[in-house]
Every structure is written in C-alpha cells, then in structure tokens.
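Minutes, project huddle
Topic: does the predicted pose make sense with iron/sulfur cluster bound?
PN asked that the exact inputs be recorded in the minutes so nobody has to dig through chat later. Recorded below.
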Amino acid sequence: MPKLKINGKDVEVPAGATIIQAYKASGQDICHYCWHPGLSVAGVCRLCMVQVEGIPKLQIACNTEAKDGMVVNNNSEMVKETVKWGLDFHLINHPLDCPICDQAGECGLQDQYMQFGAYDPEMAEQKVKKSKVVDLGPTVVLDSERCILCSRCTRFCDEVTKTSELGIFNRGDHSEIGIVEGKPLNNNYTLNTVDICPVGALTSKDFRFRQRVWYLKEADSICPGCSTGCNVKVHYNEEGLWRVKPRVNPDVNGHWMCDVGRNTYKYVNIKNRLLAGKVGRRDSWMEMSPNDATRTAGMRLKDVVDKHGPESVALVLTGQYTNEEYKDLLVYFVTGLKLKNIFHWVNNPEKLNDFDGLLFRGDRNPNTKGLEAALKLAGSKGRWEDLQAGLNGKKIKAVVVAGPEDQSVYPDMNEKVALFAQADNLVWFTACPSDALNGSGAETWQIPVKTHAEKAGTFTNFQGKEQKFPLATTIVPQALTLSEAAEVLAGKELNWALRPKSLGGAKNNYATTERGAL
Amino acid sequence: MSLVKRPSPAAQWYLPGILAGMWFTLKKMIYNIFNQKKMVTLNYPEEKYEYSPRFKGNHVLTVKKDGSIRCTACMLCATNCPAQCIKITAAEHDDPTVEKYPIAYEIDVLRCVYCGFCEEACPVDAIRMGPEWQTAGLAGSKFTYDIQQLAYRPQLKGGVQSVLDDQERHKKGI
Ligand code: SF4
Ligand code: SF4
Ligand code: SF4
Ligand code: SF4
Ligand code: FES
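Predicted holo structure (tokens), as shared on screen:
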C-alpha cells in the first residue's frame, strides 16, 4: 500500500494505483479528459500534468504509478501554465458553439476551462471545419468539430461492449471519430458513449435539443428495466422525466447502463399514464378518483369474501413493485381477508435466466426476488393451474391484480386480461392505460398507481441485493402506491395533506398558453 | 398595533391650500395659452413622442438573408428572462449547417418587464427590442407573441436582418 503526498496531503492507495487515482482518493481537483475510471489508460489528452519531486519533467498522472514516498503536486506555476496552454491546444479547432450544444452546462471543456484554463486565446489561425451532424447509428449523433479526440468512446466500444464500431480516422487535425461503412454504432450500450464523451461531440438522438440541462433536476433511482437493477439518476423537471443516466455502483452496474433501461422514463410521463380510476366493463366506463375507485373495490371484495369465503378471491402479483408495497398489500389480504390464493405472474418464463454477459437480463422485472421472498413469507403456494381451474370452474369470483408498470415487457397482457376476466369482478392496479383492460368483460376497477420514480422503496435485484431508492418526483399526484391502496381497500382514510404533491413551478410558463380573455 | 394619525389643527384650514393650488393651475393655463411652443405635454395620440433609438419596446426576432428565422433555439434568453415569459420549443433542422432551430417561440408580453435581458443574452443577435410600444388588444391571448408576430409582423416589412451571419463567420474561419 504505497503512501504518498498529494499537494501536501497524505494519501494511501492500493498497490498499482496511478497518481490520478490518488488525486481522486484524496478529493483534490485534477484536470483530465481521456482518463475514465471504467476504461483503460490512453494518456492522449496530456492535461493531467503533475510535478513529481525528483523527476525533472512533468508527468501525466493517469499513466504514472503511485509509489511509496512520492511527493506530487499540480498547483505549481509550471503545472498550471502547462495545463492552461494544453487546454488552448484542445480548443484550437473546437467550434465553441455552446449555445446550440446539448452538453453545455455539463461539459468538461466548459468546466475545465473555467477551473484550469481562463486564458485569452492566442490562436489566430483558421479553424479546421468538419462534419457537424454525422449519423453514427440509431441512437447517437456525432459532431466531429466538437470532438477533442480523447478516445473514450472508442475505448468503450473496444473494451466494454467489445463491438469496436467506433474508430479514429485520418491524421493530425483532420482526425475524426467514425464508423466503418455498413456497421453502425448499434448495440444495447451505445448511449454510454454519450455519457462519457467529455464534450458535446456525441449526443443522444432521444434527448437531443429537447431540454437545456440546467432546467433539469436529478434524483437517485433504480432502473426498473430488468432484474439487474442498475443504479441510475433520473433527470426531471416540472414537465416530467427527460432522461436516465447511470450512477456508479461497482457491485451492480459499474459505471454503465443499457439503452433499454434509458427508455424506462417514457411510460412514467403524464401523457402515457392512467389519470383517473375507471369502473365498469367493456364500452361503459365510469371515471372516479383513484381513492373512490379503490374504496368501492374494497367494499366489493369484502362482500365477495363474506358471501363465498376467502377461497373465492385471488391475488395476482407482478415483480414490478417495491418490497414495502408487497408487504403492506399482503398484510391486508393474508391477515385481513384470510386469502390463500396468491399467485406470481411471470411474464417471460422461458427467458428468465437470459443474460447478455454485461448487464441486461431476460427477467424484465426489477423485483422478482423481492416478490418471491414476500410470497414465501406470506406462506403462499399458489400454483398457476389452481388459478386457471378456479376461474374455469367459476369458484373464483374476484381477481385482484397488481399489474405491470411497464406493459411493453408483458407480451401476454391480452391473454391474461381475458383469463382473469372470467371472474365476475376484476380489480386491476395499473400505472398506464391498456386497451386489453378497456375491453375487459368482467366488472372491472382500473386503479391508477404510482411508478417507481414517484415512490420511495426497495427493489431486490437478481443477486438478492436490496437497493433502496428515494422518491424522485410526482407526476400523477392522485395515483396511489400499493401500500396506500391496501389501506383504502381496508376502509381507512388517507391523510391527503401528507401525500406528495406534483412539482409545478415558475419555470413552467403555462400562463403563456393558457390565459384566456382578460 | 395600529397608528392613528390625527390631522394637525393647521391642516383643518384646507380651503386656503386648495385656493392656492387652483391659482397655480390658472396661472400655468394662461401662460401655456400664450406660450404654446414651450409646453411639455403632448397631444397624444395626434402627436407622438420620439424615443431614443435605445428605447426597449416590443421584441423583434431577426431573420437571416434568406428570410428564415435567425434564432438558434439556445434558450439563453429564456434562461436569462427574469419574468420567465419566453417559451421555446427546439427541433432539429433538416439542414445540417443550421442544426437547431425553434419550432415555437412565444413571449408573453403581459408578463414581460421590458428589461432587455433577452437581447443582452442572445449570442447571435436574434432578438432585439424594437421601437414599438403601442400595443392594444382585447383578449389576453393576443399578448402571447409567436414567431409570426415577432419576426414577420407587417410593421417589420418582411423582417429585420440579423448582423451575424453564420456562413460569413465560417468563411472567416470562426
Ligand atoms: S467523440 Fe467524445 S468521447 Fe469520442 S473521442 Fe471525441 S470527445 Fe472523446
Ligand atoms: S441492464 Fe437492466 S437494470 Fe441495467 S439499465 Fe438495462 S434494463 Fe436497466
Ligand atoms: S425584456 Fe426582459 S422580461 Fe421581457 S422577455 Fe426579455 S428578458 Fe424577459
Ligand atoms: S433569441 Fe437568441 S438567446 Fe433566445 S433562443 Fe434564440 S438565439 Fe438563443
Ligand atoms: S487524463 Fe492523463 S493524459 Fe488524458
């Protein structure tokens, strides 16, 4: 374990670590572009210059191993000058079109210039013009002029996805990132290149030009896309969620996440959501508040249990809710209604154990493990055949379903609605509207519930690791969580004053569009 | 606590004060009748005041040489606007040299405080504060100016051209 002095501060780093890692460990600032903790060392940007006592020339911190007793600094005049003019070299051909660049506000060039550069440019030469909008594939756009050739993106494709789509072409100041013809950047991890690009050269087609980043707030969350449970940040504002980015967790996802997971913000937004409770059946629906819909559903369930006994009600759960919600719901159904018919709806049993070798798993539910544990605790041994037999034999009079939050990963939605609708009563908790549900033949309660971004809770991932996440924002304030629904089903009142409100705020210039006659 | 201020005994003699005021008005009226040239008031709306060219009136979105809108939808004006009355929706332009442009640009001029921060923020001379200030309307919605109104209203006679041209700048190697 080498011990060294960094800008006068003692640090101890694991053997084999580089000086830049010692800087990061000691929490000191160091300028760098090409080094990324999740990639190999390239040493091409030459900005991480440090002075090591006993070595006459400056060294790059990212490629110099930290040795015991080293005395390193990056605040001497010599280092500062070198870094400053190094930055000037990076900006020689940079177009400086920050106003239309999506990266502005979170850009490495802007930050490092303000922190380490802050010089008056001395280049009088013409800039080399390159292509501005290069289509690299279905998800990523390249602006060659902005690229500083740090090679992070090519290293990512070589080392992490091992697909090597990207490369550096041409020489000197005509060097450009590019793809080989006929082989676009098209894998399930492409958008990580956008994240690690320190400038705005790589931008995401999905997010491009839709928001300036300074209008976005961020909150920690867990990706609900599959059972890996990557740690993510969701970026949102008053209008809803705009993008998902990975958060570092070496035990689960490292620095990355997949492109499928990045799309999970879409169904959370208000235009894709079920906003009011709906009660009725095919062609005749009555809208009511989620609270009222749940209360009437609760009364009906009690009636059914009183008349036909607890065997006449079945509870079907999907692995898309939090551990806390399963617990609260099961407490009501198992101890309150004395239910024994509890079933686990598995959407794609044949793909459950698929794995792409990196992150993405075939089990497209974030909390299958958590549901299994909750069911075990509740003593449920519901087998799917029993449910089917009960429904066919008309023994089951009511089915309560905690349906999928993300319906696109449940291809058997239609089939299952038709199956459950054989019962007389169907209570379905769903975040998004569904055509299948609107065509249900049973007397149906569609009750809007909150999505993962709108509640705090815990998901248990495929490793059995419990990952807590906080409430990020509230999109549909009137929707219930399953825990709240369990209370309302039991006939209790919710404390409306304590429930989270939706954001709303001045940034939303609704007044400009909605004001009528004076 | 509330403070009650009683009129002083002197103030109860208001009639002399009123008469003095009326005498002053009469004096000024007679003076103005005989010195009409020196009068400081204007007979609006027949006469109009010439403001200085720096006057900050209704916004103008400038146009490029080809008549298309200059704005690049960078949203710096919207970010800078203290009244938060600018709403821009950006989109990708078919022409790769343009890249980003606004498909909607709206200013709620009833919320605008005419501070001119938007014109200060604009990096490409795409928004200016024009000389117009007489704007009347009957409905609140009339005061949400869109691109059509901001760039191509009849008074502008086809649009005001921006001084910054990207093509020329690129030729200079900027
Ligand atoms: S595109 Fe971005 S990540 Fe790739 S080399 Fe250029 S600056 Fe680096
Ligand atoms: S691998 Fe799974 S958990 Fe990770 S981002 Fe993709 S879908 Fe989400
Ligand atoms: S003049 Fe001031 S208040 Fe009006 S739009 Fe511009 S920045 Fe906003
Ligand atoms: S008017 Fe100027 S500052 Fe405002 S969005 Fe357009 S280019 Fe940007
Ligand atoms: S970070 Fe060390 S050379 Fe780029």
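Observations noted during the meeting:
- Chain B has a mean pLDDT of 88.
- Residues 15-34 of chain B form the longest helix (20 residues).
No decisions taken; revisit at the next huddle.
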